[in-house]
Structures are given as structure tokens and as C-alpha cells.
């Protein structure tokens, strides 16, 4: 739990599968349009479509619900953490407030979108206070929120159409090593995308 006080919340694949199934079964009741997952595992250089969570993610995507997953904070290029490496999930990396890939962010061709993840201030979950943190887990909610905005503007758009609008209109960011470029979300540009 360090540095957080106990009890800290941990998860495993079974808990995430249960949560994804819950969302799938209750999505229409709660008007769910995006899921945020900030968990990690081993890093991989390609897709990990043998992961048992892929079926649940596929079911949600078919309903127009994006599953945004943090790419990981190992600072590596060419690899991201499981389960972000599932091809039908949206793997999210982190930038600073400009167009620089955060030094801690995993960054690869399998990352779908970049979003702000450095010095993000949000609710701490303790005593109504705020906390400032950095990580791909800070960037991923930005991407989920962008998806939700796009879904509200384009309620009949497919997942592929929303993803394409976000990717096409994003600002290209890259790391000096690796020759990889990934778009950083630009919501207004995506809304105006034809």
C-alpha cells in the first residue's frame, strides 16, 4: 500500500472480468459509454489478445462502449503493460500539459491515444481533499471523458468512428527514441471532424 494507508484496493483479472460483465449487463440502465481501467501487469511488445478480458472488452465495444486502459508507468518505449495491450481496448499513454511524452509513460505502436497525465489534481478519496499525481492512470480518465463527450455529441456513431475522429484530429506526439508517433486527444477538433 505504500505510500497510501491500508487498506489499499487491489484487483486481479477475475475482479476486472466481474466488473466488465457488470458494466455489460447494466450499460443501458446507467447509460455507460466508457470504462476506465488503471491496472497493470507484464509489459509486452505486441497485442495480448489471448487475455481472457478481451471477450468482455469486445462485447462492450460492440455496444459502443470504449474500455480505456492505462499503458503503464515503466518509462519504456516499444512495450506496454497488460491488459492495455488488448487490441480492442484503448491503450492510453501520458503526456505533460504540452506535447511531450511523460518520461514514466510506456509508449509503443500499440498505444492508441495520449492524454495529459503529469501533475493532475483530482479528488484524493480521503476527507474531500485534492491530491496532485502523475501517471498513465491520470491520463486514462481524460481519454474516457473525451470519449463520453464524443458519444454525447454523436450518439449514433460507432466505436470505430469515434476512435478514428480522436486519432485523426489528435496532435502527433513522439519520443526522441523509437520512431513512434501517437495522437494526443484534442476534443474540439474531434467534434468538428468530418
Question: Could you describe the 3D structure shown?
Answer:
The structure is a single chain. With 194 residues, the chain is an alpha/beta fold. The protein is built from five helices and ten strands; from the N terminus they run H-E-E-H-E-E-E-E-E-E-H-H-E-E-H. Strand 9 and strand 10 (181-184) form a beta hairpin. Helix 1 runs parallel beside helix 2. The longest helix has 18 residues, at 13-30.
Output the strand order for the largest sheet: 1-3-5-6
In DSSP terms (H or I, runs of 4 or more residues), the helix count works out at 5
Percent of residues in helices: 25-40%
Strand content: 15-25%
Structural class: alpha/beta
Provide mean pLDDT, rounded: 92
Q: Summarize the biggest pleated sheet.
A: 4 strands, parallel
Order of SSEs, N→C? HEEHEEEEEEHHEEH
Amino acid at each position: 500500500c505504500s505510500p497510501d494507508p491500508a487498506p489499499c484496493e487491489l484487483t486481479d483479472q477475475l475482479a476486472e472480468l466481474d466488473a466488465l460483465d457488470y458494466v455489460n449487463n447494466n450499460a443501458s440502465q446507467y447509460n455507460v459509454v466508457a470504462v476506465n481501467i488503471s491496472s497493470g501487469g507484464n509489459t509486452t511488445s505486441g497485442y495480448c489478445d489471448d487475455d481472457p478480458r478481451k471477450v468482455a472488452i469486445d462485447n462492450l465495444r460492440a455496444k459502443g462502449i470504449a474500455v480505456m486502459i492505462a499503458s503503464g508507468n515503466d518509462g519504456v518505449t516499444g512495450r506496454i503493460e497488460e491488459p492495455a495491450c488488448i487490441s480492442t481496448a484503448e491503450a492510453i499513454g501520458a503526456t505533460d500539459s504540452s506535447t511531450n511524452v511523460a518520461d514514466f509513460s510506456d509508449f509503443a505502436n500499440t498505444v492508441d491515444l495520449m492524454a495529459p497525465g503529469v501533475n493532475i489534481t483530482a479528488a484524493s478519496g480521503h476527507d474531500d481533499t485534492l491530491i496532485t499525481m502523475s501517471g498513465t492512470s491520470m491520463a486514462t480518465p481524460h481519454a474516457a471523458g473525451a470519449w463520453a463527450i464524443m458519444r454525447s455529441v454523436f450518439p449514433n456513431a460507432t466505436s470505430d468512428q469515434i476512435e478514428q475522429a480522436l486519432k485523426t484530429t489528435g496532435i502527433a506526439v513522439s519520443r526522441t527514441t523509437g520512431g513512434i508517433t501517437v495522437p494526443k486527444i484534442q476534443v474540439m477538433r474531434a467534434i468538428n471532424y468530418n
